[in-house]
C-alpha cells in the first residue's frame, strides 16, 4: 500500500474514502483486462466480413482479368456446418424443455430426456454438406443454346416489354453481340459497361434492331430488347419465304451479296444473317460476305439491302420490260412475274436485260476456280482413274435399281 493510504488510515480517514479507492482499483483492473482480451480476440477474421475475406483470397487484378486469369476462381469451398441442424437433435439427442419442447404438456411438467440415436439423420446431414460445394451450371436445352454453348450471342431473350396496352405478340428477340466496353470518367476513372446488340421480329416481315449499354448485363439486355421493339421496320417478303431478287449491299468495309433461292434451299450464310432471317421470316437465302465481318456492319448492311428491295412490278415499270422467270425444276417453264403498267408516256423495250446484273448494280461475286491437287497429272493417279472407270456410276445405278424395285 502506498504511503498516502497508510497516512490516511493512521489519521483516521473516513471509511468511505477507502471504499472509493478500492472501487477505483477494481474498475482500473477491469478496464485493463477488458482492453487486453479485446485486443487478443480481435483479428483479421473478426474485422472484415466473410465476403471481403473471400474476395481477398480469390480476387484477380485488372491486368490479370485482361489476360484471362481467374476464370475458375471465386468459388467458396467452405461448408455450412449449421446446414440441417436442429436444437436437441444431434449425436446426443435430448429434449430441452423451453427450447425444442414445451415446458408443460397438459398437466405434466416435462423434464430432460435422452432421445434414441438416428443414424439416417447423420448420414443425410453429411450428404447435404458434401453436396454444397458441387455447384453445376443448369444445362440448357439445345434449342435455347446460342451460337457457342451457353453464351448469350444467338440466344433468345423473349419479346419486348409491352408498351401500355400494346403487347408484342409472336415476337422473338435474339442477342447478336454481348461485349464489355469501357469509358473514362473524370471522377471514377475507367468505368466498365456492357454493350448488347439484339434483333427482334415476329417472323412475318416485321423486325428491328438496336444497341444498348448499361453497367449490368440484365439491364443492357432489357434496354436493347425494348429499344429494338421501338424501331420496327416492315420488310416485304417474296412468297413469305425469301427475298424478291438478288442484291448487293454494303456498310463501311463490309459488302454482302444476297441471292434468292428456291423453296427448301435453307439459309446458307453467316450466323448473324441466319439469326436475322429467322426473326424476320426468311427461310431460303444464300449470302456471301466480302471484306470486314464486323457484326454491327453486317446487321446494318443487311437491313439496308432488305429495305432497298423492289417488287417485280416496280422493276417492270422502271425498265418497261416484262419480268419472267424460267424455272428449271418445272422443265424450263416460264412464269411471268411482272408486266409494265400501260401508259402512253412509257415505251416498251425490245431488248433483253440481264435481271441479275440489274438488281446487283452490274456487280457480281468473284468466284475463283479451285486449284487442282498436285497429284492430278501423276502416273499413279492416271492408273487409279483407269481402274475406277468401270465403277464411276455404280452408286447411282444401285440407287436407281432400288427405286424401281420398290415402285
Automatic annotation (TrEMBL):
MF-aspect GO terms: RNA binding; structural constituent of ribosome
Which Gene Ontology CC terms are recorded?
Answer: mitochondrial inner membrane; mitochondrial small ribosomal subunit
One GO term of the biological process aspect: translation
Where, subcellularly, is it found?
Mitochondrion
Do you know which SUPFAM superfamilies this protein is assigned to? dsRNA-binding domain-like, Ribosomal protein S5 domain 2-like
**TM spans (from-to):** none
| Keyword Ribonucleoprotein attached | yes
The subunit structure is: Component of the mitochondrial ribosome small subunit (28S) which comprises a 12S rRNA and about 30 distinct proteins.
Q: What is this protein called?
A: Small ribosomal subunit protein uS5m
Species per Swiss-Prot/TrEMBL record:
Drosophila erecta (Fruit fly)
